[in-house]
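Fold this complex.
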Amino acid sequence: MKKPDRSLSLLGWPAFLWFLIFLIGPLLLVLMTSFFKRGLYGGIDWQFSFQSYVRIFNAIYFDIFWKSLKLSFLTTALCLLIGFPMAWAMATATTTRRVVYVFLLSIPFLMNLIIRVFAIRLFVGYDGPLVQLLTWLHVDFDHYVMTQNQILVLYGMVTSYLPFMVFPIYTALEKFDFSLIEANADLGGNSMDALFKILIPNTRQAIANGCLLVFVPTLGEFVIPDLLGGAKNMLAGNLITEQFLKSRDWPFGAALSVVLTIILCALAYGISAWGKPHQEKED
Amino acid sequence: MLKIVGIRKSFFNSSVKQEAAVDSLFLDIREGEFFSLLGPSGCGKTTLLRMIAGLETPTSGEILLDGRRIDQLPPQQRPFNMVFQKYALFPHLTVFENVAFGLNLKKISKNEIQERVQEILALVNMTHYKDRLPETLSGGQSQRVAIARALVNRPRILLLDEPLSALDQKLREHMQTELKQLQRQLGLTFIYVTHDQEEALALSDRIGVMNRGRLEQVSEPKDLYDEPRTLFAAQFVGPMTTLEGEVLGMDGNLARIRVGDTVLHGRSKMEEPQIASSQMALALIRPERLRLLETKKEPEIASNMNMLSGQILQKIFRGTQTEVLVEITKDLVVKAIVTDEELDDKLQVGMLVSVVFDPKDTFLFLGNK
Amino acid sequence: MEKHRPRAPAWCFAILFIVLILLYFPLFYMMAGSLVEKTTDELRLTLRWYQDIMSDRELQDALVRSLIVAVCNGLLSTILGASAAITIMRSRFRFKRSLQTLSTISLVMPELVFALSLLSWFFILKLQLSLLTVIIAHVSFSLSFTLLVIMSRLSSLDFSIEEAAQDLGASSWVILRKITLPLLRPALGTAFILAFLLSFDDFLITFFTGGVGSDTLPIKLYASMKIGHTPKLNALSTLMILFSISFIIILARSKSFKDLLSSSSESAQRE
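Structure:
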């Protein structure tokens, strides 16, 4: 049992105040802003209005949100599809190899996102190796497509966020009692049975965490679509940014941010709810 | 010197209101004694010790030292020091710095600190290790440092929380001897928490047996072993052979119970009004007090002895002694301990024997298995 | 002793290797590009692009700014994070729970929303966008990371060590100074490096909260990428990668970071 001390409480105040001033303050401001009108020259006209929220239901914006959601879902699904087998392979490698794999995966993951995207652009870009390979194979394609493309955005998203999926699942599998897999084999199950009947049901929580860690940042992603997608492929993140930086329509940008946050919270709640109760029942 | 008056401690869990960890407990500790708090894990003995140290605040009740209340004082103002279960040595300080920690805080002169630390390290035979870091020490050495770190402050009472439980059997026995010797040499009061009844019996001047937050019995080791006052104390301390039966009533100063077809006499540990009612009771006898005789020698048995007849089921050799299991009925097997080698040789599996024991060695408690 | 683990099917390993190749090949290709000069029909090894960087005043200024921001952020986040972690784990602070909730909010908030809200906040407060606002923004998002690192270390410390100090007569401030902080030193180092790295590599938040003349290296990189690429960019990226990797290696060796990684898979659920 701990015996907390009152005088140490003083230490809590700086961080607490910092969060209040530079986290809660700004977030409340955005929430408030979203209910005001746009000022004549940008900025805010302090008049209460639902106008910004109504505007979101405009087909163009609705479409952008829908496209962003689809892309995030697709990214998450692909990350899971690729990430789970990776984590499984990593967890069953020898102890020394496991460390190497974790290290190899975490390096690009901790590296500057801009550099990663830049490297991808070089790789698939104008005279990059991919284009040369395709030319050499006499595959017909539009050179322009290779630089401004939604597939490219997806590729960028998946490679950037894959580790967020792999690490939680790997950590869960690393602690997993693999004698269950041996029992499965002993009882006549094949590797697909092992995957769907043993591994996945027992790592639900880690899978939920992984999905959460991929889904949340991808939905608000701004850099990857900006650098890989080009103007035609605007996503929610770019739309919001534009309201703040170019159109200077803060109330609308704020309303978009609020909606984005609400969607994220709802989905995050849904995903983690999927991971939780079953975990408890199976315990 | 230390008086604990009606102390109680309950921890509140957000979900469940638990029963009190320590409940209305009274205890007197005498100057210079080696007092052990003995009980199973979770019985509240460590909580009691931590309340004495000041690491927990009692929910109610008082702790008095020489008649002065100390239960609201912070630990640093109590003249006690504690030896923690897993030593709790400061990993970033050397042995010397660990031991000097308390003295440094008291603003004692450098020379005196040097002197006192050296002296205490010599006492626990750790002088050579004074510049080592704790992680380089063995379990026994760490324990010596932990004891030195507490003793160097010259506490009025040394509090020890299962200090030997992390050591292996051999080392533990060795450290027990050292601890006892240290305590005698210094004439210091020790309060020692343990779940190991053998350890408590070997070391203590007095033992307090605790169960579910309450003190069951406070006695000297020999009394505790020979005169357990509660069923829990009887079963927790030392081996017991247990027979279940029905209370028949009093017979002089002995009580009678019926076990199977046999009537046994024993010393009643039941309260007077309970005896008449025909309740279930347990008869407890130390297995070494059970004598085994070949059935044909029955006439030699004095008539006031308790006796059960049965057949030897199994013999288990335990080195200095032999355990003999005697089947009385299908449902009742009695364990006796035989230390006499001659007798041991005579007893064979399958032999019909009488199990004989003195009513004054038989304790009767209410209860059932 | 480790029990034998039945290996995952071969196709799992195949995916693992393909992904690793796809992750690394573009990086190597980019690094290789930084050492090559292309003339009409000839490739030549060269260090020219690196020399270009060395003589580029603007890049050097950006580097200095990046370092200033990263170091300030590292120090501030570590100090604030440590004091908050100690409060949460070791005291009776009234807003203990709220502090934890706040840190969780800053972790799960979409980075973009976070950056834009700070931008409008600075605007309302009439704070000129500068290196100062960048540092403030960085601390606001690094703080929850340092808090987590230090908290996970504190929870793995044997509390009876601090109780022993208390028993020997130390007040809570003495315990903090003589016992807890020295024992936390490795975690403080980890927290600092983590905050430093987060800040050094950050683009998005800097992009929105920085003003004219507060461009850090990632911002410069982004700006020049928007214009088009030159091998000089390859060289700059390569240098930044090497710089980050050296810190990542230090991070990976620290125990508190491993503690955090293993606990994060469980704690993320509580969000």
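Chain C touches chain A through 99 residues (CB under 8 Å).
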